[in-house]
Design goal:
three-stranded antiparallel sheet; 4 domains; about 325 residues; five-stranded mixed sheet; 12 strands; single chain; Methyltransferase, Cobalt-precorrin-4 Transmethylase, Domain 2; alpha+beta; 12 helices
């Protein structure tokens, strides 16, 4: 398993002691994270514009030799994963790095222990420690724990810096080839079937493109439920985005169900459900001419039907929102 690895030295924000921690930015297979080398640099020795150690200063060779040594340790760790043909993740790399350098191990922080670890982590921050909230896959706080930590840290006046990283949501939007000026991200669907069914039925009224996260063991069941309401929609399917076994596909939902029916899938899945072209902010199937629908509604109303009845009749017939047709008719008058 060959890993694409890039290393470069960076410093971070200034600490309370007026010094900057020296970090090594590790780019691994398109994702990146920061490793704290444990060495701190005086502010006068740091070039803020270049974000690097100033050349020619006293002790410059000491800084660079320290950085080179830490890079060597990281390269050795990655090469070891390659020799064993194992997949490396940042949590594994950091744990091995810390054991080799005698540094404190990383702190596990997830939805099951977030409330217990919160005060401990805040105490470390208040004591002047520099900490990084890292996610092995995706971007922290996008359906991951950490919101309470960030909120409490901000309330205590602790500086928070975001380091952009890969997100399966934005990756899916860039790959799906659908217009994304009107989309709705719902994360994971509700576990309760009654609530989930209600949510699914609301998709078309809420946006022309709906993005979902789906666990692999739920894909067949949820795809079937969505198909029962919207049998003709286009769908974009992506699995393990930005990772070694990335997989993307788009077509009809009925085709996707056939493809995944006999597969044992692993890894996070992103589904993009396309309900039509965005026409002036309205989600409509491509074969629907809204102006013609309004004209036919007027004919029905002239026959004695109320606007409410006409809206319901065409909404049921075309699979549209009653409110959408009702409001559009009023605007056309």
């Amino acid at each position: 398993m060959r890993h694409t690895l890039n290393l470069d030295c960076k410093t971070h924000h200034e600490g309370k002691d007026g010094k900057f921690p020296i970090l090594i930015r590790v780019s691994l297979n398109g994702e990146h994270d920061y490793i704290n080398t444990g060495r701190r640099i005086k502010v006068e020795h740091y070039d803020k514009k270049l974000k690097a150690v100033k050349k020619g200063i006293t002790g410059y060779s000491s800084y660079t030799s320290h950085i080179d040594k830490q890079k060597g340790i990281l390269e050795e760790i990655i090469n070891d994963f390659d020799r064993k043909e194992e997949i490396a993740t940042f949590s594994k790399i950091k744990e091995i790095y810390n054991s080799k350098t005698g540094k404190e191990k990383s702190i596990s922080f997830h939805k099951f222990n977030e409330s217990k670890k919160l005060e401990y982590v805040l105490d470390l921050l208040m004591a002047g420690k520099d900490l990084a909230l890292v996610s092995d896959a995706g971007t922290p706080l996008i359906l991951d724990p950490g919101c309470d930590l960030v909120l409490n840290a901000r309330n205590k006046g602790i500086k928070i810096v975001a380091i952009p990283g890969p997100s399966s949501l934005t990756c899916a939007l860039s790959l799906c080839s659908y217009k994304t000026n009107d989309f709705l991200f719902l994360g994971f669907l509700p576990e309760r079937k009654s609530i989930r069914e209600k949510t699914i039925r609301s998709f078309r009224e809420r946006a022309s493109l709906v993005i979902l996260f789906v666990a692999p063991h739920d894909l067949k069941k949820y795809s079937g439920e969505i198909f029962g309401v919207y049998p003709d929609i286009d769908v974009f399917y992506a699995r393990e985005l930005t990772k070694v076994f990335e997989e993307c596909w788009y077509g009809k939902l009925s085709e996707l169900i056939e493809i995944v029916n006999n597969r044992n899938l692993k890894g996070e899945i992103v589904l993009g459900l396309r309900f039509g072209i965005d026409k002036g902010g309205l989600s409509l199937p491509e074969n629907v001419d809204l102006d013609l629908v309004i004209k036919e509604m007027k004919g029905l109303i002239n026959e004695g039907y109320s606007l409410k009845e006409a809206s319901k009749s065409f909404a049921d017939k075309l699979g549209l929102s009653k409110k959408l047709l009702y409001d559009k008719y009023l605007k056309s008058k």
